[in-house]
Design goal:
By secondary structure, this protein is of the alpha/beta class. The chain has 15 helices and 5 strands.
């Protein structure tokens, strides 16, 4: 049983362009794991550059070579869940294994059960010695799994990995020599939420093989554009697209979709129109922004777009302000009138 793998935003039907050298390094690392020599692969770069696509290529190659693949993914919302990534990697491998858990969790590996929820956690906070024993137990659990056959351990978005899992990966990476285990991780550069010091313990390991996919060239951008446009893509138009996207494959696909929705032909005369999308490409969520632009320019305008939409918004704000002003207007206080004088003493009973 395997954990789900994160999917790259770039369509998988598209071939990997200008990544032959990176694929050669991945294939060499897989062959080394088969020969009993473990290693660490670090694929880093900005979002959309194709790191996950290369990670999927490593998975496919490992499947072809009969390596067992364990997959996990870091996430912003699970960073405070201790050993969350470790559980993605190893919990199913232990619980769903043909061998009983007692066989895999023998010797020093017995301490790994605490991280996997198979052993009751202490009520008090674990000391540094206890945390080290758990990391060491997880290392021996990986070694026991690798004894049945070579392993590929894949962690996507490792920059969002929880602290204990990240420390385990760094601990394992320093002990891969002579172990048939390939560890491959992707790291997004420039993320403000990353614990750089802790992440550096893993990705800056001297023995790590770092793969940083470069931006696509104008020729590769032309090839991607030609897959969608019926007309031949002219050089000036492709150059404008490559400049606007910085050669990022994901942004090239998004820009291409927006240009198609706007019925922009890939000719040199339309190179200037590509610059209109630069602001949208710089947005943190370029997918929704560009598609919204494409729908509006294609004539499918919503009720709140254009001059009519601005007039409606102004009218709505004016009405809301009128309601608020009426709501806040203080009501006049009623003063009590003079009272008729009453008797000083109650009347005597008859």
């Amino acid at each position: 049983m395997r954990s789900p793998v994160v999917r790259d935003p770039v369509p998988h039907g598209t071939e990997l362009l200008e990544r032959a050298g990176d694929l050669d390094l991945i294939h060499a690392a897989v062959e080394a794991a088969l020969a009993g020599e473990g290693s660490l692969l670090v694929l880093d770069g900005p979002p959309g550059i194709g790191k996950t696509r290369l990670l999927d290529a490593a998975r496919r190659r490992s499947g072809e070579r009969d390596l067992r693949v364990l997959v996990a993914r870091g996430g912003r919302l699970e960073r405070n869940f201790s050993y969350g990534v470790v559980r993605q990697l190893l919990e199913r491998a232990v619980v769903g294994s043909d061998a009983p858990a007692s066989v895999l969790l023998t010797g020093p590996a017995v301490h790994a059960g605490r991280a996997l929820g198979l052993e009751a956690a202490p009520e008090q906070r674990a000391t540094e010695d206890q945390a080290f024993a758990v990391r060491h137990g997880l290392y021996w659990l990986a070694a026991n799994l690798a004894a049945a056959g070579p392993l590929l351990i894949v962690v996507d978005d490792v920059q969002w990995c929880d602290g204990p899992s990240l420390r385990f990966l760094a601990y394992l990476a320093r002990r891969l020599e002579g172990l048939p285990v390939l560890v491959a991780v992707t790291a997004r550069t420039g993320d403000p939420e990353t614990d750089e010091q802790l992440l550096a313990e893993l990705v800056d390991d001297p023995a790590a093989r770092r793969i940083s996919p470069p931006p696509l060239s104008v020729a590769a951008t032309t090839h991607l554009l030609a897959l969608a446009f019926e007309d031949p893509v002219e050089h000036a138009f492709a150059t404008a697209c490559q400049t606007a996207t910085g050669g990022n494959p994901f942004l090239v696909h998004e820009l291409r979709a927006a240009l198609q929705a706007d019925d922009v032909r890939p000719v040199a005369a339309n190179a200037g129109r590509v610059a209109e999308h630069r602001r949208a490409l710089a947005d943190p969520a370029p997918r929704a922004d560009l598609r919204c632009r494409g729908r509006c320019r294609a004539g499918r305008r919503g009720p709140w777009s254009g001059d009519r939409g601005r007039a409606r918004r102004r009218t709505g704000r004016a009405r809301g302000a009128g309601r608020r002003s009426r709501r806040r207007r203080p009501r006049p206080r009623r003063r009590p009138g003079p009272r008729a004088p009453g008797p000083l003493h109650p009347p005597d009973p008859a």
